[in-house]
What we know:
The complex is a heterodimer of chains A (545) and B (318).
Chain A: H1 6-23, H2 30-34, H3 49-52, E1 54-61, H4 63-84, E2 89-95, E3 98-103, H5 109-117, E4 122-125, E5 130-133, E6 135-139, E7 145-150, H6 152-177, E8 183-187, E9 191-197, H7 202-210, E10 215-219, H8 226-231, E11 238-243, E12 255-259, E13 264-265, E14 269-276, E15 283-289, H9 291-303, E16 309-313, E17 316-319, E18 331-334, H10 340-351, E19 359-367, H11 369-423, H12 429-458, H13 463-495, H14 499-537
Parallel strand pairs in A: 11-17
Antiparallel strand pairs in A: 1-9, 1-19, 2-3, 3-7, 4-5, 6-7, 8-9, 10-13, 10-16, 11-12, 14-15, 15-18, 16-17
Helix pairs in contact in A: 1-11, 7-10, 11-12, 11-14, 12-13, 12-14, 13-14
Chain B: H1 25-45, E1 49-50, H2 52-55, E2 57-64, H3 71-79, E3 86-90, E4 96-101, H4 108-122, E5 126-134, H5 136-164, H6 167-190, E6 194-195, H7 197-227, H8 233-265, H9 271-299, H10 303-317
Parallel strand pairs in B: 1-6
Antiparallel strand pairs in B: 2-4, 2-5, 3-4
Helix pairs in contact in B: 1-6, 5-6, 5-7, 6-7, 6-9, 7-8, 7-9, 8-9
Amino acid sequence: MLHFERWKIVLILLTCFLGLLFALPNFFSAETRAKWPGFLPSRAMPLGLDLQGGAHLLLAIDQKDIRHDWLTNLREDARRSLRDAKIGFSAIGISGEALQVRLVKPEDTDAAYEALRKLVQPIGNQILGTTGDDIEVRRGAEPGVILLQPTAFGLRERLIHATSASIETINRRVNAMGTAESEVVQQGRDRILVQYPGLSDTQQLKDLIGQTAKLSFHAVHPTVTAEEAQTTRPPVGYKIYQSGEREDDAGYQSAYVLQEVPVVQGDDLVDSQPAFDSQTNAPIITFRFNQSGARKFGNFTKTHVGEPFAIVLDDKVISAPVIREAILGGSGQISGNFSVDSANNLAIQLRSGALPAKLTIVEERTVGPSLGADSIDAGLRASVVGLTAMAIITVYIYGTFGVYALIGLLVHGVLIAALMSAVGATLTLPGIAGFVLTIAMAVDANVLIYERVREEIRAGKTQVMAIETGFRRAFTTILDSQLTTLVAGLIMFWLGSGPIRGFAVTLSLGILTSVFAAVTVTRLLCAMWLKNAKAAKGRQVAIPI
Amino acid sequence: MFLVPDFKGHDIFPHHLNLPIMRYKELCFAISILLMVISLGLIFTKGFNLGVDFKGGSLIEVRAKSGEADISDMRSSLTALGLGSVQIQHIGTAGDVLIRVEQQEGEEEAQQVAAKKVLDTLGEGYELRRVEIVGPAVSGELRMTGLIAVFVACIAIWAYVWFRFEWQFSVGVLVGLGHDALITAGVFSLFQLQFDLGIVAAFLAMLGYSINDSIVVADRIRENMRKYKKMPLTELLNLSINETLSRTVLTGVTTVIVLLSLIIFGGEVIRNFVFCMLFGVLIGTYSSVFISSPLIEYLGIRRDAMDEEPAKAPAQTS
Lengths: 545, 318
């Protein structure tokens, strides 16, 4: 047991050397590492947001918003279908989770049902065999009423689609903000996690990703004013739109009566940039349409010269200028009392496209860079003090073998850092605590072994036998106790989130390395000591323990 | 070619003590049961001071740019916002302040609005150190997954022990686990320490440590059962506990030292977290020595089951 084959020694030393190599990047700055030759590992442990500072936002897609948008579009489709089929209807409105169609003549019900059935579309993945209808058409309780309702399956498909589309859009927006190593990932079915390291003010980030940025250009009703529409009812096809927050400038109106179907939509935008008005020097946003957008916009402005049209963002009017001349080139500008920042944000939002649905922030965690740095300092200071005290105790109690235990600990520390760097596991503040705990556990392994050795010596065993039994007997105990902790660590990683995960990562990796370091490395050192001592002093040696 | 010059260690632990631990087991059981009952009572009457993670709401940590924060001014201006319960407390230095705003009526957005109001009211004089805003949906989920994590971890640990040892040991370990968890929870309730996601991690770690301790003793009991076939169970348990006592104490001391240094120097953010582990290590050490192992005596372990594995094989061949 105490005899080590040469290849084993080589393997142990090689492991230690590789560990050192992979742990090395953590001690140098990114600039130094960039200059290293390519064959050296240059990846350092990524630091968690709690250590380097940054923002963590968990966003959820508003399902109600998706349903409402869907029903609104469905209303237009239903209207058109019935009109095409020449079936009279008295009302089409959203009631609860369905669209309710009320026919003028109840005897038309069958014909209307057939016409509306055509709106149903099979959706889903044909390859996976998961297909179904997107909506359900059914007859209402009273005659002459037909209901159209999105199915649970259809809603789920829309949600999945909206989530992946949102991730793309957010990614474009966040990337446009700067060069930080931001991360946008899906969590669960309808959640999106945005992590942005090194950011102290999250407000800008929230403003940027919080807005749907659905842009559209609408015709303004030529005669009816918002006040009139509010008291009576907006004309058919028109709707009252509130004005966005604006200071009082010329032509300020709190609401507008606009045609519900837009002339052009933001989908047709190809580019949008912040700029300054050449006359007033106020921040503005310039935009450019694609071909079809340019044609629609050109046709509209040609026929409506002298009339106002409205630029609507997320159902709020941001400005309603009067068309002075036909805009044929497909590019234009939006002015609307912007600040430099808000103009920049809006340009980014328009450029990266609209979000398919409203997002709500369900969780926000921000750590300022100064607190992160303080936490690292405190963690390091505590580790140094605690480990020094522990080292003194260990050496005092176990003498030379105590030193070997510490060398084992050092290897353990290096190997954790190496593993975490190689795998790219993030180091967090609870992770530091977890690391410290594994140090305590690694010491525990050595304590178990050495106490056993002492016991065997007291029982009258020879020195060699005592060491050998000590290592062998303690090993099963170490294995049992470490494995239970590993079980706990893996479960924490599997079920946990945030701090629990960070802790679990270092704990689990630490257990693996601590067994190697405390048992194998320390045993090698003890065996070498024994060999040397015997060679120097003959058969009678006193174990320094 | 030697690495380190020889110097002898100091075996400071008094051996051949043979403390009559088993004799005091009734007393320890009584104390522990009392503590557990008190803890349960505390949990049901006082409850927990749940953090933002589990209760929802916002937590905002700021540092005064002037170096000193005016708490009373802050308190009056923030309470005037009408956001319900707003806790304001100093942490660390004179300039650092922690503000907790309870969960607002309404949905996710209401929390955002409330936090923004607080930040706007504080104004330019304060540097933002940390903001945590957790909406009602997420806090509910975190509470649930936290509970599940603790529960599943306990079951898995218990199953492992049951698999590796006799069932009596696994019962002893399970009782020890419950004991440690309950009393630690009681302490959190008594002092109304903030209970958040990090504490769940600390809880699991401390349970891991406690198990560790129990397993070391259990291992020794099993070994001694094979070694001393005629020794009465009580005496054997006592011997096993005593034999492993030096290790239990030494490991406990080194772990406590490291945790203490984390409490003192580790900063405000992990103080509660480390406190939980520290308390857990102390109670876990106590329970493995005075509760889990003596309990085996009550459950009565079958000695012949222990002997069978190594002894029977040669007997059959002869």
